[in-house]
Amino acid sequence: MQSDLNTTTAYALDSQSGVSWAAIAAGAVAAAALTLVLVAFGAGLGLSAVSPWSDTGVSAATFKTGTGIYLVIVAVMSSAVGGYLAARLRTRLVGMHTNEVFFRDTAHGFLAWAFATVLSASVLGAAIAHLANGAAGGLAAAAPQAARAVNPQEIYVDKLFRTDNAAPAPAGNANNSRAEVLRLWAASIGAGQDLTPDDRTYLAHVVAARTGLSQADAERRVDAVVAEAKAAADQARRGAIKLSFWVTAALLFGAFAASLAAIEGGQLRDGTWNDRVLVPRTL
Q: Which of 32, 69, 158, 227 shows the greatest Cβ crowding within 10 Å of its Cβ?
């Protein structure tokens, strides 16, 4: 009789699905919602930390590092809550070995983290990106609306044609030469390449004709503006690399936190109540 009961229990366990998608979805939604709340709170902290005035607020390097650390903290907190709920809310399995229960709880926490990651990246991606850029958006709000639509390459062209004379530029082919220089700049420097010797000489000649500088001074100005543009592009590239590393660290720490919290949730789910104290299941 006992053997038949064990066989029936084993058959019932084998016939059940090893994944409780309802619990995983609940944990994932909770994790995604908490991520949205914490990112909104972090955007508020960023707005209070940065300032458009010089020598005020935190430095750019400190702000970027703090943002990366906060991103990891958000991932750990939200993923831990999602993994805990996914394991705590799933159906308790009776008669299964504790090692198998341990594995399934960990798997549910990991799946809840994966579901929350996909949900945050697809459904909530636009909202999170808008909140994450809140500090930069707050600083840019004071700028004129027209300045936001300016091609960044035009700033360097303006520096090439800058003169000490406040009089308007001479009529004629001024607009045509500016458009030609802008196309040349975007095709070379804007595309991450360098000016050819012929293009550099021609560009210096155009700058000299527009500004009244000598050919040598125009060439030095061209070299200085090109170096400035390359430095800005290299800084943006390094910033993107650091951001990718911080995002990778946040994802890895989030997955670990979700799996670890799921173990705790499973132990408490299978625990016993001693009066008002919940004693977790031992591993």
A: 32
